[in-house]
Known about the structure:
By secondary structure, the chain is α/β, with parallel strands linked by helices. The protein has helices at 23-38, 54-57, 63-66, 85-97, 117-120, 137-150, 156-169, 212-218, 246-255, 272-282, 305-318, 346-349; strands at 4-11, 47-51, 78-81, 103-111, 187-189, 192-193, 202-211, 223-232, 264-266, 289-290, 324-331, 337-344. The strands form 2 sheets. It has a 10-stranded mixed beta sheet with strand order 3-2-4-7-1-8-12-11-9-10. It has a two-stranded antiparallel sheet with strand order 5-6. Helix 10 links the parallel strand 9 and strand 10 (289-290). Helix 4 (85-97) packs across helix 11, helix 6 packs across helix 10 and helix 7 packs across helix 10. The protein is globular, with a radius of gyration of 19 Å.
Amino acid sequence: MRDVAIVAFAQTAHRRRTDELSEVDLLMPVLHEVLGATGLKANEIGFTCSGSADYLAGRAFSFTMALDGVGAHPPISESHVEMDGAWALYEAWVKIMTGEADTALVYSYGKSSPGEVRDVLTRQLDPYYLAPLWPDSVSLAALQAQALIDAGDTDEAALAEIAARSRADATTNPYAQLTGDVPAGDHLVHPLRTGDCPPIGDGAAAVVLAAGDTARALCARPAWIRGIDHRIEAHSLGVRDLTDSPSTRLAAQHAGAFERPVDTAELHAPFTSQEVVLRKALGLGGDTRINPSGGALAANPIMAAGLIRLGEAAARIHRGESDRALAHATSGPCLQQNLVAVLEGESAHA
Length: 350
């Protein structure tokens, strides 16, 4: 086993539209910033892994074009996942753990503005029974929210409080798309109002991973990955209890999240109702600061929002604002796939 840490994190200022920017234009400043923070050059990175979705770009193998942002020379060891960048980070972590690399660059990006996100995400559904019905992502989240209300786990007022807290916390986040007082708005799909749903926007993020003494040389206070795991629910929504997330609970258990309390949790909950599910599955109480960055309700660049949760948790450790943090990422409808990581600062490691 090797000690592996997040040693740098960078993200874009998330915006509703970036029509004037290509994916490469979106990525290059972030890649330069994250490498500049460590002092590493491209030829000193042992492994590069990215996360994105061709469905958003509307063309096959779109990630190969984004590689122009990394540079065509020198040749690199590179991989890609058709997932949120959090899963690219997992692959890079495995690469370092096996000893095949000592450092890794992980990046992800998403331009949601060109298309209809609610329709695009239906392509994640079971292709035989659900996808032909075209139930959009907000309608499915509303079904989950209504199930929580019917079970007595929450109500519309409590969901509105989550939205208000998230947008208020985002006022200290210079990268957030939505901040401050945001009206709850009308029902988008009952019982979810506009404020219960994530903004549509474009953005990118990147992190650098390093092992052992290399991490200590690159960062004054590395965010050590003490555990990381990801699990998946059944594909069919009809066989799942939408008020619970056993895959999140199992991933957290294998990541060691229940061994000691965490002081911070960055949860990838694009809808307010999903935070209710995640807090229950993870056993998070009032002593844990939830989404101090504002979370996905403040900025939700698809395919990058999960990696941003890991980056935000790591950045708080880098700044000394957290000692033990939990980061969560999700993909698919109604929290179908979930990844959990536990990060600790150097003092907690000693």
